[in-house]
Amino acid sequence: MVDARQQFGSRVKSLESKKIRLAQGYYTTIRADGLVVAHPARRGLRVPTKLLVGLVVLFVCFKGFVLAAIGPTTYDVRLATLAQGTIVEQAGAWVLQADPVTQALARKLGPVFRG
């Protein structure tokens, strides 16, 4: 009898926690027998792939614009100065290194910025 009461208590506790999660959002599915079942919405950080790709393209374009505007020698001097700083600044210098795509974009934009 005590075991049945403990099982009942655990089932009630499980249903209460599911109710709280369902209140924060849910989606429904239909089982093979036709019963509609509500499931708590998936939580977590979900970033769309298009957004990530867009941010990377925007960042590479920014690097190309800066490289075209200040010139490659000045850009390299500033990166060297940045590389001598703290760990965070060194990481920034590594990320801001001129890659082939950035260099090609800077070559195309160079005449626009320098007249």
Quick description:
With 115 residues, this protein is mainly alpha-helical.
Lay out the secondary structure:
Layout: H1 2-23, E1 26-30, E2 36-40, H2 49-70, H3 72-83, H4 87-95, H5 100-114
Helix pairs in contact: 2-3, 2-5, 3-4
Descriptive account of the structure:
This protein is mainly alpha-helical and 115 residues long. It is 70% helix and 9% strand. It is built from 5 helices and 2 strands; from the N terminus they run H-E-E-H-H-H-H. A two-stranded antiparallel ribbon has the order 1-2. Helix 2 (49-70) crosses helix 5 (100-114). It is elongated. It starts with a helix and ends with a helix. Keywords: Membrane, Transmembrane, Transmembrane helix. The chain crosses the membrane at residues 51-70.
Helix/strand/pairing category: mainly alpha
Please give the largest β-sheet.
2 strands, antiparallel
- Total helices: the number is 5
Number of strands: 2
Descriptors:
two-stranded antiparallel ribbon; mainly alpha; elongated; 2 strands; 115 residues
